[in-house]
Design a protein that fits this description.
By secondary structure, the protein is of the alpha/beta class. It is built from 19 helices and 14 strands.
Length: 447
């Protein structure tokens, strides 16, 4: 099939490369000329495991192309995926300017039937707005052409996006058209062979499904962080509680790891957008509001734990392991590390940080500053530091010589924001250990 994908961010680039990989002819279009030039030169602007190889192979095969020419992208394809960003507006609602700009461009350039597919995460009712925008552009041209708009939300996790696209649990499509269903089945047929993963529903139901899925996962995280905060006050190790409830098949172990809060491009903005939508329809979403509030508070817990353990952090040097909001990505959007670093700088502390992939992104965000040192590895990050904070659960941080760490850290303090370490082992090495929701009164060594 001839497919164009508008947007070359995480969603658009992964979707385009994966669709090309199974034989479709794919054009990825973006208005950012510099980004397209980088892609054409083989430089992938985002870190996603396996993506560089996938893009390179399919560009070489001729199945994947890049362009800034929207007219070309519209005219040469029947299936047009909209995969541009929907950043949160000031009031928390999703900003649809980019989505609707693509819709207008489609209406301005189409010359025959098109199937327009909303891949971006968008509020309920967006497909109707996209359709109206296309028809308005056609009307201004004095042209009457057939167009269908469907919803096909993505369920890709950063760090595992290719696996999720190619082997995901479901492929959701919102449409009431048999023709659209047939075209979408043909599009995804190579990824739908073992059993039927296609789920067809109304357009609005598909749009809500995406938000509901992310809100549920965010709720599980915030709930477990609430339990962790309670466990600390009750002198209980939340890891024991996690194992206890995770064994219940109705709950499961996924997304019940307590920590320093969720971040990234999806959960924060999607919960806010769904909350905003509910309010627009006259409903107060108390649970969604609580999920967001708990997460906001949880991101402050690392700095709070540092202050309560060290006292005044002014003049202290704090090592940070992990800057990305999660492992296997360089994405620092809404990352807990950012809130911690900014709080430390405001309090007069210095930061020495390392992340396997997010160093360039951190440098782009914060530039050169005297109170930030970005190191080459985790070893250099703790040299001369007073305390260590774990912000991201990269595999490279899981195995540590605790005796070495105790020798390096001036205050012999580890704040484990992801509960990576065994409390008895780390304290036996002479370190003071503070996890999230763990029985720290029992294991922490006095200063």
């Amino acid at each position: 099939m001839n497919i164009s994908v508008f947007g070359t961010g995480y969603v658009g680039l992964v979707a385009g490369a994966c669709l090309a990989d199974v034989g479709h002819q794919v054009i990825c279009m973006d208005i950012d000329a510099e980004r397209i030039a980088c892609l054409e030169a083989g430089d992938i602007p985002i870190y996603e495991p396996g993506l560089t190889e996938l893009v390179t192979q399919n560009v070489a095969s001729g199945r994947l192309r890049f362009t800034t020419d929207s007219a070309k992208a519209v005219k040469e394809s029947e299936l047009l995926f909209i995969a541009v960003g929907t950043p949160p507006d000031e009031d928390g609602s999703a900003d649809l300017r980019h989505v609707l700009a693509v819709a207008r461009s489609i209406g301005e350039h189409m010359e025959d039937y098109k199937l327009v597919i909303d891949k971006s995460t968008v509020p309920v009712g967006t497909a109707e707005k996209v359709n109206a925008e296309i028809l308005a552009a056609l009307g201004e041209r004095g042209v009457s052409l057939e167009v269908d708009v469907c919803s096909n939300p993505e369920f890709m996790k950063e760090g595992a996006a290719i696996e999720d696209f190619t082997r995901g649990a479901r492929i959701v499509v919102g449409t009431d058209s048999e023709h659209v269903e047939a075209r979408m089945r043909a599009c995804y047929a190579p990824y739908n062979r073992n059993h039927d993963k296609m789920m067809f529903m109304s357009v609005r139901a598909a749009e809500l499904t995406k938000y509901a899925a992310n809100a549920m996962l965010a709720t599980k995280i915030s709930f477990m962080n609430e339990m962790a905060n309670l466990a600390e006050r009750l002198e209980v190790d939340v890891e024991e509680v996690r194992r206890g409830i995770g064994s219940d098949p109705r709950i499961g172990y996924h997304f019940i790891y307590p920590g320093c809060g969720y971040g990234g491009s999806c959960f924060p903005k999607d919960v806010q957008a769904l909350e905003r939508t509910a309010r627009e329809y006259g409903y107060h979403p108390a649970l969604l509001s609580a999920v967001e509030q708990v997460n906001h508070q949880q991101k402050q817990t690392l700095f709070t734990k540092l202050q309560s353990t060290l006292g005044d952090v002014s003049g202290k040097t704090i090592a940070i392991w992990g800057l990305a909001f999660k492992p296997n990505t360089d994405d620092m959007r809404e990352a807990p590390s950012r809130e911690l670093m900014e709080a430390l700088w405001a309090a007069g502390a210095k930061v020495q940080a390392f992340d396997p992939e997010a160093m360039s992104e951190c440098r782009r965000l914060y530039g050169d500053r005297s109170d930030l040192v970005l190191t080459f590895d985790r070893i250099q990050a703790v040299k001369g530091a007073d305390a260590l904070v774990i912000c991201t659960e990269w595999k490279a941080f899981r195995s540590v010589d605790f005796a070495w760490l105790a020798d390096e850290l001036g205050e012999k303090l580890v704040i484990d924001g992801r509960n990576l370490y065994d409390m008895e082992s780390i304290t036996a090495a002479g370190l003071r250990y503070v996890g999230v929701g763990r029985n720290n009164l029992r294991f922490a060594i006095p200063a």
